[in-house]
Design brief:
Length: 517
């Protein structure tokens, strides 16, 4: 079960800590006051009701004693006068003096009904003992009247509880006013109290944001106490110390590996220079002397010797092509990328025309669809299209009719996707991962000539643009090469930054990992 499902008051889980402290403080105060008020109201209600019952019982005892003579002589006027004394008692709504006859029947000798009380005459039984009974809104008092130990009647009182409920409402009003005042004071106090909690947390958050936004590991969070938050701040500051040391060590390692990389690049450039100048001279000598032998001694050599010399010339030519491809691939990695928006269609037409002028392409077999513009280095991308067009034209040589199509569409919000499709010999998809490696070829040189560098250059250019390149094919049904290019500057900028970070991480990996790879 997710932890968030067990969190109470989920509505506050995203609220600021200040609001949480205020809500908790005020809720606690509210609950405590409500329980206290309810307790006092119940206690006061019971005490007031018992006090009223005791007072009314005492009053009934006095009136019943004064009414003994009236009951003994059936003196209605005297009985009525005795009850008139209850008119000044606001709580009494009805009073009746009940006479017990000889045949045990009862009758009302006299009664008193408070104006607008809403009661009719009531003839209860005559109890032998006094009692006080409460209903929801009344108090019923029964007081027996005895003469020389003989029960002759009773006094009955109906008492309203207005004084009881009035006291409750008064007390509730006072408690409500106290509640509002206490909540206001709690709000004001919590506004000051929450700073004890939020100030250290604010310092921690500010420090964390400085680290994440500015990558400044030298900052430290201020500690305001030794409570749990203070312990967290101590742990956070210790972590920053470790990160600062690791960051410094990382910078040293990056500088060291960068220096090593620069040295390797320098050595590679020196090697490229040697390949370009030192190896070309022997190759030219081999090719020249082979041609001289074929021309000057053609009559004195056998066909077998002639074939050997042709193989030497062809091998020298192929090695020269490999050297040229290697140098082109090496120079491509050092060249700066000049970014601008350009038309893929226009670049493709230029590449096709140049290939046709060199006699290695027929522009009539090329179909260019309406494709979106791209953002990048147009010169480098033209090299990509040149290599792909040349590759497609080469591998469709055995087809009666060559058919090469360039198309494209939107790949996502950052990149456009382009493809070059042909109807050539194709290849097995299990070998697709070898297509873009340097000197990797899926066909023998006797079938299709090539140096194995062209697609490696394609992959290098597209990667430097932040895109990717891949191919799909079915043997005998042609091949389709896909590549993506940025739609605008933001995409290429973000991708460059990501790839730069990946290169740095690769540079600073432990030497043991490098050796294993």
């Amino acid at each position: 079960m997710p932890v968030s499902e067990n969190i109470p008051f989920k509505g506050l889980k995203d609220a600021p800590i200040r609001r949480k402290v205020t809500v908790v403080s005020m809720s606690t105060a509210l609950i405590a006051l409500l329980l206290t008020a309810a307790t006092f109201i119940v206690i006061d209600f019971l005490n007031t009701r018992d006090s009223l019952a005791e007072r009314m019982s005492s009053l009934a005892a006095v009136v019943s004693t004064n009414s003994q003579g009236a009951l003994a002589f059936d003196d209605t006027d005297r009985a009525a006068k005795n009850l008139d004394g209850l008119r000044s008692v606001e709580e009494v709504d009805y009073a009746a003096l009940i006479k017990l006859e000889v045949d045990s029947t009862v009758s009302v000798l006299a009664d008193y009904l408070k104006p607008d009380a809403g009661y009719s005459q009531f003839v209860p039984s005559v109890p032998k003992t006094s009692s006080a009974e409460f209903t929801f809104d009344e108090l019923l008092i029964f007081q027996p009247v005895e003469i020389q130990g003989e029960l002759v009647g009773s006094l009955f009182l109906k008492v309203n509880l207005s004084v009881v409920y009035g006291r409750i409402w008064t007390f509730a009003g006072i408690m409500l006013a106290v509640l509002v005042l206490v909540l206001l004071l709690t709000f004001l106090v919590s506004g000051r109290f929450h700073r004890v909690i939020t100030t250290p947390l604010d310092s921690l958050v500010t420090t964390a944001r400085s680290v994440t936004d500015n990558h400044d590991y030298s900052v430290r969070a201020n500690k305001f106490g030794n409570d749990e938050v203070g312990l967290v701040i101590d742990a956070f500051n210790e972590m920053l110390i470790d990160l600062q040391e690791l960051h410094h060590d990382l910078e040293v390692r990056v500088q060291k590996r960068t220096s090593q990389l620069q040295q390797a690049v320098t050595e590679l450039e020196s090697f490229s220079y040697s390949v370009s100048h030192d190896l070309r001279a022997p190759l030219r000598a081999v090719d020249g002397f082979s041609s001289a032998l074929l021309e000057d001694y053609s009559d004195n050599i056998s066909e077998e010797q002639r074939r050997y010399l042709e193989i030497i010339k062809q091998s020298a030519k192929q090695m020269g092509a490999l050297i040229d491809g290697l140098l082109a691939f090496s120079r491509l990695g050092r060249r700066e990328v000049s970014m601008s928006e350009f038309s893929i269609s226009s670049i493709a037409h230029q590449a096709a025309n140049e290939l046709e002028l060199s006699g290695s392409f027929d522009i009539g077999c090329l179909t260019i669809k309406d494709v979106p513009k791209a953002y990048g280095d147009s010169t480098m991308v033209r090299q990509v299209l040149t290599n792909l067009l040349s590759n497609a034209y080469k591998f469709t040589a055995d087809e009666p009719t060559r058919n090469i199509v360039l198309g494209g569409d939107t790949y996502d919000s950052e990149f456009n996707r382009y493809y070059l499709k042909d109807n050539g010999v194709g290849f097995e998809m299990k070998y697709a991962d070898k297509l873009f490696g340097v000197f990797q070829r899926l066909h023998h040189n006797s079938e299709f000539e090539g140096s194995g560098v062209g697609l490696a250059i394609v992959e290098r250019v597209i990667t430097r643009h932040g895109g990717k390149v891949w191919a799909e094919s079915v043997p005998g049904q042609g091949a389709t090469f896909f590549f993506t290019l940025p739609r605008h500057r933001l995409a290429i900028h973000d991708e460059f930054e990501l790839r730069s970070q990946e290169r740095v991480e690769a540079l600073v990996q432990p030497q043991s990992e490098v050796d294993e790879q």
